[in-house]
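Teaching note: in complex prediction, the entire set of molecules is handled at once rather than each chain in isolation. The prompt given to students was simply: 'Predict the structure of this complex.' The entities are:
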Amino acid sequence: MSSESTQQPDFPAYRYTAELAGDIERHWQDYWEKNGTFEAPNPTGLLADPSKADIAQRPKQFVLDMFPYPSGAGLHVGHPLGYIGTDVFARYKRMSGFNVLHSLGYDAFGLPAEQYAVQTGQHPRVTTEANIANMRRQLRELGLGHDQRRSIATTDTEYYKWTQWIFLQLFDSWFDIEQDKARPIAELIAEFEAGARLTPSGEPYSALNEADRRKLVDSYRLAYVSDAPVNWCPGLGTVLANEEVTADGRSERGNYPVFKRNLRQWMMRITTYADRLLDDLELLDWPEPIKMMQRNWIGKSTGARVDFVANGETISVFTTRPDTLFGATYLVLAPEHPLVDKLIGPHWPSHGNTHWTKGFHNPIDAVEAYRAQAAARTDEERTAENREKTGVFIGAYATNPASGTHIPIFIADYVLMGYGTGAIMAVPAQDQRDWDFAKVFDLPVVRTVQPPDAFDGEAFTGDGSAINSEFLDGLEVAQAKQKMIDWLTAHNHGKATTTYKLRDWLFSRQRYWGEPFPILHDEYGPVAVPESMLPVELPEVDDYSPRTFDPDDAHSNPEPPLGRVQEWANVTLDLGDGPKQYRRELNVMPQWAGSCWYELRYLDPTNSQAFVDAEVERYWMGPQAPGHPGGGELYVGGVEHAVLHLLYARFWHKVLFDLGRVSSKEPYYRLFNQGYIQAYAYTDDRGTYVNAGEVIQEDDGTFSYQGQPVTQEYGKMGKSLKNIVTPDDMRDQYGADTFRVYEMSTGPLDASRPWETRAVVGSQRFLQRVWRLFVDEHSGQSRIVDGPVDDETLRVLHRTIAGVREDFELLRFNTAVAKLIELTNHITQYHSQGTPRELARPLVLMLAPLAPHIAEELWRRLGNEDSLTYVDFPVADPTLLIAETIEYPIQINGKVRSKITVPADADEATVQAAALADEKIAALLEGAAPRKIIVVPGRIVTLVK
RNA sequence: GCCUGGGUGGUGGAAUGGCAGACACAACCGUCUUAAAAACGGUUGCCCUUGCCGGGCGUGCGGGUUCGAGUCCCGUCCUGGGCACCA
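The expected output is the structure of the full assembly:
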């Protein structure tokens, strides 16, 4: 490619080739680095820069990309799509009078490096740092304007020191329901000590012994140890979060069996923030689908708790339809429900229905058999669509508190222990699942909402008047709900209740390559490592793997790698009450921890006194107006983080807000979901992937590789699919600027699109045409002239400025590129004798965010000494946006029949007259006056014949 | 099943309810060249007509609102993503 210039004697010596682009790009990358061009000044602290005082005065703009994992495979062309998008936006904002913070750090803890370490014995830090270095190089070569001083990695000791510090903030906090916010745990203890808050048992706090006090206080903490059931995966030797378990009960990674086990694990009390996480979505400029996914995940539903009495036991159920209580004809408990064993009858009632007993001699056997059957099923089988309802009668009855009727109690696997109370009141007339179950077991159906006359379905879930419901009869659903809740409350049978799908966040991992917990254990439980002793550094180990077990051994127990280092795990420390023996927490934090607050560390990465300085945080993240939640102006990333990362990060941020550590309620004000770049892959007749770069499309549309037909697939880029194209390849073949322009021009940032290497040349031709406007390809001489610009070109220029500005603002880079191409082509055609400076200057400035290296080079050739990074973006002259004449299409009955050109300031009557006077129109009207004439100013004339 | 995006030329994609297909790729033709490449210029939604002038049909499909619909409304099909017996 670039070598042609030396082989071909007549090849223009100064053409913008990949080789020349490479020279220019290296030069400017060095220049930017040397001059700290993209280093954004802070208002105070170590990153305040007196030489940039003018920039520090500007309004701020915090542009953020989702935190990448530095993969050992390096980047392919799909990865930088979003990074280039944010870079274009950030550069545009720098030219629009903003102090722009744009950096990129590394979410560098995680499994791949650890697994590599397990296999090779190589310390994960070594691989991680090599991967980061490679990724930094790749990104630098794309010309991304990141502030390198702020490019932290979660594995930096100085960084995870503060991750541990934030963990301690959570550990040392509790959620005050009254105030709806987190408060320091010391305030809780003070309330207990003063007697202002009663202990749950009613005993005075001062009367409790140390163990009970500690236990009580620990039960309030936002970070707490729990014996909750977890997903234990012996094959991996670790506990998995629910999200890491597939629907059929296996590990997402490795596909090993996963067992529900009660284990001691660290949890985060995110559920206390459910309402605020839900409500504050309203304050954010996020795509509606993402908000919807978060709402669904939080899963708030309001209704009532209703208590049913059976054999002296109280069964609480949750229902969203308390108005249908009179129609509750049976109860269903989850098979695992703890009350089942107490309620179970020794014998079948004499009037027992054979459907219900399933041929067992007594309920005890029936329940045992059903439980075994339910446990043996995979989740997939249990949740299969349209599955016949199964269950079994437990030989006991409960009393419906409203109707007083005795209703049978069943267990069934369609009721889940983990949601609500693990028990439901079944109302077959108004719930399809209950209807289905009732049909199988021949249970009574009592309609309590009047369906419409035309209704011929089964369960009726719509609105209607209450029937068969005594004091509710005649009320609509909403009023009936309220009245029933009032009645339940008044008679002590229940009360209004809200439940959430959201669970507390499982926060510990049995791994090595993560942040150690800053926690010690003494005889009473967990104790915080004092702030002065942070960071708790990862010790060296000789084996990085957790102990793994037979994948099917459900009774094995986790043994984290840190447990192998006994001299680290067992320490004697003086925490203020004399030297004492402690055992360190052996788990490490999940990868989410580091990505929950990284954007805050970007703000003040070198601060050794605080995780971020308060004034610095207020400047970059603070609310921009009353009612504004604060947060970064733009956050770009893939939709795959719609729920977990974004929810966890919001949660941590809100805790820090409650504790007065940050001034913003939310970390990410505007969220934008980028699309993905996908690629074609090809398989031969054996199903083996062939090198996609060598596949040829035949004239008949089929594909072949080395003469053999191959089959096309479409999807991800991957090594095994042999369809990887890297930014390094593109830099070598075309140059980084061409690559940037191509990625931005192929579609809107939020659209996924296929990669097509052969189309990249279009972007290169565009930049070559721009280059030719400035430089004579043969002599290298400047083609810039000081001559006048014709009026039409001037108007094109100013329309382009206005359009490009708007497009950049809205991240519509593809149409911005199209407009710049049109302008370039126009200048090429109208000013073939030399490019007027008046056109060259705005063109190069508008191009700069997209193709910064060539723009800097051309800017220098225009005689400027400094970088154009902070030069004002061109502003359109409004008087030049108005055309002198306007061409109106004229429609008759919706079809364009002719066109007229009139002065731009012609009034409607003039336009109308001109339209009617047009020869073709007059001919088509045949002398008759049109029935109607519509003139849309500046747009169109429509006649109705 | 529920919740969400999206269906426009050979391809990626443009289009505040106002001339559908900007811009780009591919394809074809031309200029230049001994030739090729590069570059530059032209043609390119489909169909009829084609010497020219024209005409018809077109944004997944079927309806509707409107002077006018890719855009708004109703229904329907296909498809990407998310959640899933959530009481």
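Point out the following to students. The two ends of chain A are 62 Å apart (CA to CA). The first helix of chain A runs from residue 4 to 7.
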